What does this fold into?
Amino acid sequence: MSISIRKNIRRITPIAIAAAFAGAAGFSGAASAQEVVRLGNLKFAHYGAVSYIKEIAPKCGIKVEEHIFAKGPDVMQAILAGELDVGATASEAAIQGRANGAPIYVVAGFAKGGARLVARPDSGIKSIKDLKGKKVGVTRGGIHEVLLAAELQQAGITFSDQPGKDVQLIFLAFADLNQALLGKNLDAIMQSEPQSSQAINKGFGVEVMKPYDTPIGEPVRTLVMSEKFYKERRATAAKFMTCFVQATKTFIDNKPTAEKYVREVIFKNQITADDFQDAISNSPYTYDVTAQHIQITTDVMAKTGVGKMRKAPVASEWVKTDLLDEAKKSLNIK
It folds into this structure.
């Protein structure tokens, strides 16, 4: 050992060593007290309360690591790969995931609605029937594709992503739909929030309809848990669900907090107050989901052919709201 190294070792006093051990012990204790929950989420206004869970998680005795994905099916893939414990997604991604073997349970709903058919102001499109002969943009594999297909089928309009049908579908990511409408590459888009509100407020889009008159009604966004997390870490799962209910109640009861968090933290001031308020009026926060709603959505997916399902799952077998019911009861929420 060199003289310089021996000198440096001597400088480490007994007090410093004791402090280091105390710090390590404290860190270890904190880590064991707060179990980590890996959460998959999407970047939309109505997913804000789910994102807020990580801010209040320490008070619930857990730590939440949030991972943002581009679309719901990506969240399902991450759960399937064992990379997530909980995921927030539209119902169609959860249904398709379960149908294809993903070991998941729907445990809550967190928002309703969140879709809007928006057309170019100069397109002449006033109703769903006016989409004949038009190019309509939508994100493949999302609940918006299910809703668009259901509306077109209900109106007796044929559609495909290839030419030759009444409506030609153009599949684009949510982030690209507004640009395509603004650039007049599309006649209309079935878009999420707050992007549809932005298109309207900025003047390059007009609302045609909110697509809630199909058997699905207002689609419910779903919170899903891996079966492993639900069964094997039940105490932690219960803490997470209590945290979810508290975050959602905060956003429902305290609109300024919800707006500030979504606008400033999630969207970095890229959306206006009007964008946020219009978006949430079309996608209100909620806690609840029913097996009946998931079953109807499953049936519509099977009828329209949207979403590849090896075997359509039976909702009553995998919609489990017992943890939600317990959390709501403990917080006196009906």
Confidence is low (pLDDT under 50) at residues 1-32. The chain has 14 helices and eleven strands. The two ends are 69 Å apart (CA to CA). The first helix runs from residue 3 to 11.
